[in-house]
Amino acid sequence: MNARFFYKTLPVMAALLLTCGMLRAESAAELIKKGDVFDQKFQATEALQFYLPAEKLEPKDARILVRIARQYRHLMTDAATKEEKLRLGGIALEYSQRAAALAPDDSEAQIAIGITYGKMLAFAGNKEKSEASPRIKASADRAIARDPRNDTAWHVLGKWHRVLADVGGVKRAMAQIMYGKLPTTTNEAAVTCFEKAIEINPKRLMHYIELGLTYAQMGRKDDARRFINKGIAMPDVEKDDPVIKQRGREALAKL
Q: pTM for this structure?
């Protein structure tokens, strides 16, 4: 290539390089958009086929990391074994922690940690549960501080209160000896959180069922039936809705 030709074509080459850079910058957004289509249909494997490449292009984009964490939580729900659920939960937790670190002022990024720990608790050992408890609380508190209208954060905080309120004296003493002192809270605190979640977003059945479960724990059977039945009567909209409804039905059978 002679010098004259090089200088003649330099503006064209520069324009091409600039265009490629712009396409690369836009490609992550396009991948997210395509992944969102599958995310809305709870097709986690398909969504990850777009979100993971988007992460390669924009590894510090917390929005992508939050989406990826959600897909691994969905896969966790569908996994057949405890070991696989915990493995997938661990991946979701890693992405959640990265998102929270990258976006300290983003409410959705902050609550991702609490949501993920919450899903893992059912399959974790006592030590892991004890270690996760303050992290769930901190996650919910940070999310609410950044957005008081985050109903998911209020829901996570409500479950935190409900679970700890149900820990009896013997279990609490044993936990304190082995893992350190557990926080003390009340069912009333859980009720306040779930009522707040319902006020913010009355279209999510999980808020009603968890409130009903809290009332069942308090011995308020009529209130428990009312809210659990209300949640069960609502249409499935989210990935875990069928699981939450089944939990509600099991609680009703025991009332």
A: 0.85
Mean of all residue pLDDT scores within the chain:
88
pLDDT for residue 128? 87
In contact, 38 and 46? CB cutoff 8 Å: yes
Q: What is the pLDDT of residue 181?
A: 60
pLDDT one-digit tens code per residue, 129-169: 888 999 999 999 999 999 999 999 999 999 999 999 988 54
pLDDT value of position 132: 92
Least confident of 148-152, 171-175, 182-186, 219-223: 171-175
What phi and psi values does residue 106 have, to the nearest 5 degrees?
Answer: -100, 120
Rounded CA Rg of the chain:
23
Concatenated DSSP letters for the chain?
A: --HHHHHHHHHHHHHHHHHHHHHHHHHHHHHHHHHHHHHTTT-HHHHHHHHHHHHHH-TT-HHHHHHHHHHHHHHHHH-SSHHHHHHHHHHHHHHHHHHHHH-TT-HHHHHHHHHHHHHHHTTS-HHHHHHHHHHHHHHHHHHHHH-TT-HHHHHHHHHHHHHHHT--HHHHHHHHHHH-PPP---HHHHHHHHHHHHHH-TT-HHHHHHHHHHHHHHT-HHHHHHHHHHHHHSPP-STTHHHHHHHHHHHHHH-
Distance, CA of 75 to CA of 88 (rounded, Å): 7
Alpha-carbon gap, residue 96 to 153, rounded angstroms: 14
